[in-house]
Structure formats: C-alpha cells, structure tokens
Holliday junction branch migration complex subunit RuvA (Pelagivirga sediminicola), 223 residues
Amino acid sequence: MIGRIAGRIDYRAADHVLIDVQGVGYLVFCSDRTMQALPRAGEHAALYTDLLVREDILQLFGFTTLVEKEWHRLLMSVQGVGAKASLAILGTLGPDGVGRAIALGDWNAVKAAKGIGPKTAQRVVNELKDKAPEIMAMGAGPATAAPQPQPQDGEVIEAGPQAPRPAAPAGPGPQAEALSALTNLGYAPGEAAGAVAQAAGEAPGADVAALIRAALKLLAPKG
C-alpha cells in the first residue's frame, strides 16, 4: 500500500491534486483543510496517503499529518461513514477538533460536517470515544513540503515492513501529556480525554500541570 508520496503538484482541483512522482501522476483526494494547506501548482509537496481498494475503484487519499490519516481510517470504521464523509468531517473540524468533539461527546459538532446526519454523528461519538485518546496522544508532525527539488523528492514509499520510516513526529503536547498522566492515575481513557479537552478549551494556553489540575477538578465527584 502507498503510505506516502512526494513530488511536484501538476494541478489542483476542488477536492484533489495531481502529484507528479518521477513522471507518474498520482491523483490524491484531500479534505478542504488539507487542500488549503498545500502549495500552488508547480511546487513540491509531501502527503501521507491511504489507498482505498474496491472491486471497481482505486483511490488515494492524502493527509498532511499522520494524526489526520489515522483519524480518517478510524472514522471510516464507523458504519455509514465512507471516505467522502470522513474527509467532510476532517475538513470541517480538523484532526484536533474531531478528537475534542468525540472526547466531549459533542455529536452536534460532528453533525456540522456536510452530509453527516444526527444518527451518523452519534454513532461516530459513541463508537470512537474509547479509541480516540490513542490518536489524540500521537502528536504527529506534518509531512514537510520540500521548497526545492531534492534527491528524495519524487518518490513513492510503499507502506510495509521494508518501507522507509517517515520523519520522527514532534513530541506530545500539553494535552497528550495531561491525558497520559490521568490515565496513569486510573481514569478511563474516554473520561480523561473529555476532561482534558474541556480544560484545554477553557484555557487554550495552559501548560501540562494546569491542564491536569483543571481536568482533575472536572473529574472530581459532584455533590
């Protein structure tokens, strides 16, 4: 499976780009946010990719970060969420927004994506709540676009045991570290993720210690 591509953007459309990789053009579909993040035609870009294989079609989907790619794969595991719906959710909320909405049980935020009804949005939140923390804690960095052609550009990397590893992701941020601390204290992953997301929303610039304190207050028994 193709796990990452790097090359020159030949042209851009509303929902996909054509990337020239050593003379071979790869059509890659992307969310609105990813499309906005990509450079202009004629410039070089790198994308993590996921290949959809069906009897009648092969489609590549591209993502600027491994976190976005993993959310795409996880969203597509929910009944009623196909590739188009997944990209709509990611395009509306972004990877961080998806994690926050699921952790907080905010299915209305998911429903804001084009083509997503209330029942599907509720399934996304209910089915992924316990799986979300692992992806939220990944803290993966972006696939860097090369400003000038380099020898490593124009390559297709096959995902598998022999595939070269992508650049090391950036270290976990305050939310991921706070989440890890709370789960180590024995809180359920979904419960801890919800508290951390709420605390971060109320204090966007808070450090790890402040997030943990705020989340613990939210998790404290009421009454």
Remarks:
- Strands lie at 2-12, 16-21, 24-29, 44-54, 57-63, 155-158.
- Confidence is low (pLDDT under 50) at residues 140-151, 160-171.
